[in-house]
Amino acid sequence: MELEGANCDLYAGKKAGKVLENLLRGAENSIRAYSPFLSPMVADILKRKAKHMPVEIFTTKATRNNTHRKALRKLRGPFGFLKPFFLRKGVRVKILPNTFHAKVFLIDDVVVLGSANLTYSGLRKNFEMVTVCRDWDTVTDVTQYLSDNF
Fold first, then answer.
1. Measured at the alpha carbon of residue 129, what is the angle toward residues 64 and 132, in degrees to the nearest 5?
2. Residues 13 and 124 sit within 8 Å (Cβ to Cβ)
C-alpha cells in the first residue's frame, strides 16, 4: 500500500503519545486499533468507550509480556475471547500473529500511523512519532487496506 500526497500532521516526542491518547479519549463514533501491545490503563479507556460505540482491537498474544497479558484479561473478562461475541457492548479483540508489528489507529474519521503502542509508556513516557491524517481519501484507503488484510 502506498499513500502519496496525503494531508497529514506529524507529532514527535512525548506529544505524539498525548495526541493519540486525546484522540482515543475523545472518540465519539468508533475505535479500531492495531497495536502489538496494550496496557491495563488503555484497556480501561477502551472498555469505557465500548459502552457507547464499536471498539475493535487487533493485537498479538505476546505471552511473555505481563502487562499485555493483564490488559487482555481486562478486555476478555471471565469468559475469555468468547465474551465479545456474546455481548452487544464490549471490546472485540482479534489476536494476530506475533510477527505483527504495525501501529495503526482508526478513530472516528481519523487515521493515526506511528510508533506508539497502546501502552502507558507508548502514550506517556516514550519518545514516539505519530502521523495524524484527516484526509477522507487517506482514511478510506487505510481502512479498506486493513479490512482486506486483517
1. 115
2. no
Average pLDDT over residues 63-84: 75
Assigned C-alpha cell, 149: 488484510
Q: Pull the grid cell for residue 23.
A: 484522540
Nearest Cα residue to 93 out of 47, 141, 58: 58
Question: Which three three-digit cell numbers place residue 6?
Answer: 496525503
| DSSP states of 120-132 | HIIIIIS-EEEEE
Each domain of the chain, given as residue ranges in start order, spans 8-149
> What is the residue whose three cell numbers read 492495531?
34
- Which regions of 90-140 does DSSP assign to beta strands (E)? 91-96, 104-107, 110-114, 128-133
Residues 85-99: pLDDT tens digits? 444 467 889 988 888
The predicted model scores a pTM of 0.88
Cell numbers of 135, please?
A: 484526509
Distance CA 86, CA 91 (A): 11
- Looking at the DSSP bridge assignments, the partners of residue 9 are 132
Identify the three-state secondary structure at position 18: helix
Q: Which fold, 8-149?
A: Endonuclease; Chain A (3.30.870)
Q: Contact 95/80 with Cβ under 8 angstroms?
A: no
